[in-house]
Design goal:
About 7% of the residues have low confidence. It is extended, with a radius of gyration of 24 Å. By secondary structure, the chain is mainly alpha-helical. β7 and β8 form a beta hairpin. The chain has a two-stranded antiparallel sheet with strand order 1-2. Strands 3-4 form a two-stranded antiparallel ribbon. The protein contains eight helices and ten strands.
């Protein structure tokens, strides 16, 4: 038996243990020839390849929706049954899928493994980082291309102190900003 020191999982064989460790290292040596998506397990690649084949031999007994593999069908049927087999150990909230539970657990923890390369802010999920990058990249681009932003005193550059919104945006843009309900929508349309 092999014990994973990262998560406490017990694995019977050395081959399976090596495969399990890729979950923690992020190594993804298995590549789909069709779309170049990468996977850390051969079984995940094989399941993925079914999507490209178009073969959907599993159908929902309730609504007849078709699926390429049995695990996706099982997850789907939970929509109809209301079954939530994955429970949060912190608040007992139930989830239909394990990845939903894992995402939820991160909200209870202070871990923020996803970092923005522009400003070094950290986020709990890749999704939140991507949303941030839409805003940060546009502001960062404005800073890099700004022609006449005032310099701070001394030898430090204007990048050492963040500029105020009045320096980054025109008066017209600031007026539009005051009228929006959703900040993300405002920056998407810029």
């Amino acid at each position: 038996m092999f014990l994973c020191e990262k998560c406490g999982h017990l694995i019977k064989s050395s081959r399976n243990f090596a495969s399990h460790l890729r979950i923690h290292t992020g190594e993804k040596p298995f590549i789909c020839d069709e779309c170049k998506k990468t996977f850390n397990q051969m079984s995940s690649l094989k399941r993925h390849l079914l999507l490209h084949s178009g073969d959907k031999s599993y159908s929902c007994p309730v609504c007849d929706k078709k699926f390429s593999d049995q695990s996706n069908l099982r997850q789907h049927v939970r929509i109809h049954t209301g079954d939530r087999p994955y429970t949060c150990p912190y608040c007992n909230k139930g989830f239909r899928r394990k990845d939903e539970l894992n995402y939820h657990i991160k909200q209870h923890l202070d871990e923020k493994p996803f970092r923005c390369l522009n400003c070094n802010d950290a986020f709990k999920s890749k999704f939140l980082l991507e949303k941030h990058k839409q805003l940060c990249n546009s502001q960062f681009h404005r800073l890099k291309t700004a022609q006449a932003l005032p310099q701070s005193s001394g030898t430090a550059s204007f990048m050492d102190e963040p500029p105020s919104p009045l320096q980054l945006f025109s008066t017209e843009e600031l007026e539009k900003f005051r009228e929006v309900d959703n900040v993300d929508d405002f920056f998407k349309n810029m």
